[in-house]
Amino acid sequence: MSVLSTVICMTSRSAMVAESGLFTKSSPSKNSRHLMNATTFSSPVFVKDGNCIVREVVSVDGAIDFLERWPESRRDLIHKTALKACYDAHDGYKPVSVVRQAFISFAKRACILEDPASVMPWISPSKSGSGTEAV
Fold it and tell me: Please, which domain of life does this record's source organism belong to (predicted)?
């Protein structure tokens, strides 16, 4: 499963969330939880990936994945700096907070940063029920 998770697509939200594997039922081991927490952002960063998809990047690995997939024709010094910060943090040379800020700077420059307040209503649980219909 990719660390990058699809959060929303205005045209087919349910299908995109299901494809992302957000609801995978696996329980990580104690060691993997520790490693995940060591590279997890203090809060997620939401970025646009295409016309209707917003992705939630929650970790150093997620940022690396996103930056590695960025089109080569659109890469610049800020992209290079953010990617280097990611690899440095992955190797233990930089704190995760530096990576998060570098990734945010890259996203702002690329005009893909999404405001969490505008995304959160789309990913919060439904208040009207489970989404299933009783027959």
Answer: Bacteria
In angstroms, rounded to a whole number, what is the distance separating the alpha carbons of residues 35 and 55? 22
Tens-place pLDDT, residues 98-129: 999 999 999 999 999 999 888 776 665 545 55
Per-residue pLDDT tens over the stretch 15-52: 333 333 332 223 333 443 334 457 899 999 999 987 77
Residues, the chain: 135
Helix/strand/coil (H/E/C) assignment for every residue in 72-115: HHHCCHHHHHHHHHHHHHHCCCCCHHHHHHHHHHHHHHCCCEEC
Residue 56 sits at the vertex; the CA angle it makes with 105 and 89, to the nearest 5 degrees, is 55
**Neighbour-count burial of 128, counting CB atoms closer than 10 A to its CB (0-12 exposed, 13-18 middle, 19+ buried):** exposed
